[in-house]
Amino acid sequence: MKLKIQEIKNNSIANMTKKCFQMAILLLLSFGTIQAQDKKAKDLLDQVTTKIKSYNNIVIDFKYTLNNAKENINQDSKGNVTMKGNQYLLNFMGVTKIFDGQKTYTIVPEDEEVTISKVNEKDDNAITPSKMLTFFNSGYKFNMDIVQNVKGRKIQYIKLTPTSAKDQRKEILLGIDVQTKHIYNLIETGKNGTKTTLTVNSFKTNQPLSKNQFTFVASKYPKYYINKLD
């Protein structure tokens, strides 16, 4: 059971990282090459892109929910992520991940361990902002979906559907606040019935960041085991 929980935790952290980047990249991405474009959806995404491109950094507090009724899994977690250029700092489920543009540092206080690994951009499983730049460039069609009123906020959803039959995701719903042109949430539904939702509780930009915001300082973890994979 402990191994099952740890597996869910590891998968959640990986999925959470991907969703944070997906959300950020959707803000920054040019959608000119995406297949089967819906003009209204593209116009809305272009408005979001235009506004967000001027931001120097993005700081997000979020709630992450994973549900699978068949497996009786219902998991809620909170976290935060700071992104600037091709660097990020993610705190989620008791784990801190730092990417300084070249290496990823995964800090696990529970195990008193730090894992350091280089990122291979050619690896399909690599999770970096630059890697995610191509996420929605091809292999998806998108169109306007439902509109919801969430606590007085008008949220317009755009549905992205994978064009490959091999893709294990059924669809992705991206919720955009019509007034602020910021992302409200991202809902991913898998073919196996698993639904993961990233909801933004706080979205801040151009925050004063430390010069060493994305730098791993080994002296802060004197008793930790340093596991260098490369």
Automatic annotation (TrEMBL):
It holds the Pfam family LolA. The keyword Zinc does not apply. Residues 1-36 form the signal peptide. Keywords: Lipoprotein, Signal. It comes from the Bacteria. This is Outer membrane lipoprotein carrier protein LolA. It comes from Flavobacterium flavipigmentatum.
